[in-house]
Amino acid sequence: MKNVLLILMLAFASALGGYWTYYRCATAPARAMLTEQGGEMQWLRHEYHLSDAQFARVEQVHREYTPKCDLMCGNIMKANARLDQLISANKSVTPEVSAAMKECLAVQNECREAMLGHVYAVGSEMSPADGARYLEMMKARIVEPALGHSAAISESSK
Amino acid sequence: MNSSTNDNITSRLQAWTVDPDVPPSFQREVWQRIADRQTAREEAFWPQLVQWVSAQLARPRYAMALVAVSLTASIGVAHIQAQDTNAKLGKQLEARYATSVDPLAMMAR
Predict the structure, then answer these.
(1) Which among A3, A19, A23 has CB closest to B58?
(2) pLDDT tens track for B38-84
């Protein structure tokens, strides 16, 4: 009876150990990407099967785009803040408010255009199939920027 | 066998009556005994099973098989759960990437 208990304990321990080891190993790359700086770029590389050369070019495109993106973000904030201020200061849609609203839309449109340009540039570095999938994922953010985009197409979500 | 003998047997059989001396609790006792036996059989199942498993596990071949099956099953479950976790983490990374190139999403962050 003692031996049987020992065997049962051994089976339980090996099952527990096997589970823990496999789970940790299988999820380690994704967990590492999530915690490390720039993990999203590693995700892009993995998700869209980029070779070293492709990834280097994509990184270059991304590096060039990042300052523009930050600048656009700042412009949107400024335009929004101005509109916010004018909405509070007025009681009707004055020409000034109307102009501020147009300015907001113009800045947002400029951002969407720049983003689309970046998406095309990144997608062109990928294989045709991956490029199409990448465009599909990003398209939803450009067409409907206000949505949460939880339905974006991703290989890992299939 | 002739006809008079047959008639004799028939008349005896017709005259024969059975008057068993059955105690009033007979029926109840029978059912009680059936229930007792059933309970005893059910109670004996688990000790017997434990005894059988113990006997089997005493053999190294079966002990190894149990360990191997447990390990395989646990890895199978871990594989399914890891896939699920990876899909969730992938979604988070996808959103993070999209936010890094989307000024409007950056604003909402």
Answers:
(1) A3
(2) 888 877 888 888 888 888 888 889 999 999 999 999 999 999 999 99
Would you give the DSSP letter of residue A148?
Answer: -
CA A73, chain centre distance (Å): 16
Under an 8 A CB cutoff, do A34 and B89 touch?
yes
ipTM (interface predicted TM): 0.79
User: CB–CB of A108/A85 below 8 Å?
Assistant: no
Query: CB pairs under 8 A, 24+ apart, for A52-56?
Result: A54/A125, A54/A126
Question: What is the predicted pLDDT for the residue at A153?
Answer: 40
Q: A99 to each of A69, A72, B40, how far by Cα in Å? A: 24, 19, 91
Instruction: Give CA–CA dist A90/A98, Å, rounded.
Output: 11
pLDDT band at A51 (very low <50, low <70, confident <90, very high): very high
Centre a 10 Å sphere on the Cβ of residue B35 and count the other Cβ atoms it contains.
Answer: 10
CB contact under 8 A, B67 and A149: no
* Phi and psi, residue B32, nearest 5°: -65, -40
